[in-house]
Design a protein that fits this description.
By secondary structure, this protein is an alpha+beta fold. It contains 13 helices and 17 strands. It folds into 4 domains: about 150 residues, no CATH class; about 180 residues, no CATH class; about 100 residues, no CATH class; about 55 residues, no CATH class. Helix content is about 25%, strand content about 20%. The protein is globular.
Amino acid sequence: MPIRYSAFGYYNQDGNGRNGGVLRARMKFIGPTQPVAGSSPINNNNSEWSATTGIMETNPDPLDATAASTFSGVSIANSGVMNYLNKFGNNSKRYKSNDPVSEMYYAALRYLRNLGNVDAYTNLGNASTNEKKQYLDGFPVIVNWPDPIAYSCQQNFVLGIGDVNTHADKDLPAEGDTTIDISAATNMAGKLEGINNLSTYTSGRSNGFYMVGLAYDAHTKDIRPDLPGKQTVNTYWVDVLENQKYEAKNNNQFYLATKYGGFSVNEGFNPYSTGNSSSTLSDSTWWTTGDRITISNQNDKRPDNYFLGNSPEQMKLGLERAFEKIVSEAAKAASTTISLSTPYQLPSGNANYKVEYDPNNWTSSLEGQLISYGSDGSPSVTTEWNAATLLDGRTAANRYIVTWNAGGVVFTESNLSAEQKSALGSDLSNKIAYLRGNRTLENGTYRKRSHLLGDIVNSKCAVGPPSQKFWDIHNPGYSQFQRAQKQSTDHRLCRLQ
């Protein structure tokens, strides 16, 4: 699956005098081609390697390099996501010390929130030419941020690499940012973990656990209320284990950030409910591999989004596993329609219909649910039925499938015209039986199905009486059915359109 990438880092500036993080490469496709919705892929003018030779491009984003040169007054010859990850520190012959990781993570979230760059993070002030060369390290620093979210309900991920020994990263949020109460978010994540007042934690380096609250808030709340749908962020991290030491979970901001920035958010979960506690999230929402971290005499459960990188082999394995999970999550699309207006309410609660599509196995689920609200406003969802489960319970003989042959007819071989039989080709009887749901035919010839309900793509669930203008001359009985549904106050019909 094609994924767009961007890269954040720091100015290569030692000490605690510089807050935040900087955008080194804007969000983009990095391969030789890029997809176009509803059409064939096109050439990518900002490809980071040659499609012919595979050789990496030195400056795949020349406009950003030129803009950074103008902004800083020093020459910038490199650009690109992969280039930066491969070569940061190479130009200045050194790596930054005292990294404010929560502030860099905050800058990445600002980018996804379309809040813009923080001037204090990038302003070069009275820095000398040599200092500027060291800070920029031969790569762009992008100060004018375009909106990185291109699609409604886009899947968003942050993948970080670093060690937990961070410094001076609690100067948050930036002035004027009212989108999050970082202390409240961090304390709530701590409450779920069973840790009191997590926002006050420091290990003595003026650092803290704010990235845990940032990750939790961005994972459970809509980060872009200005856009349709809900945009959230999943957080991943590779912990390089500085000095080959693993900090146990209560002292490890990466562990907690990936746990509370990557757990499976169930329908109806209220991220700031006063009733949340250490028993609110089951292990199955964040720990599905069974892996444990046994380094440094520990035995912690490894969150699915947390990886170790304490050796070249482990780093490679951690990144591979992280990207495999990211690709899997990016491929999965879901949409939910909550019907709350009076004409569509059921007597026992509000109707909620959820449609989910998984391209990994080309199946979908359609769930009918009831949603109610507690005294604190937290929603509670109960699944009444799942179309995929109901369909799996039927046999090929009792499926109601219709087609057209001078009128609506049951989809069986005897009801098909000669032209229809010809269009279906060879092995007609088995092919029809397979389409009707015969599971015994799922072998080398016919695809193995996880569920009988196929993929529901490019459709949404519409709740209420039918509204299409079909004529009875072609669709006998439709007008009567439409009138009956409009007169009913119990609309249980969810149609895909």
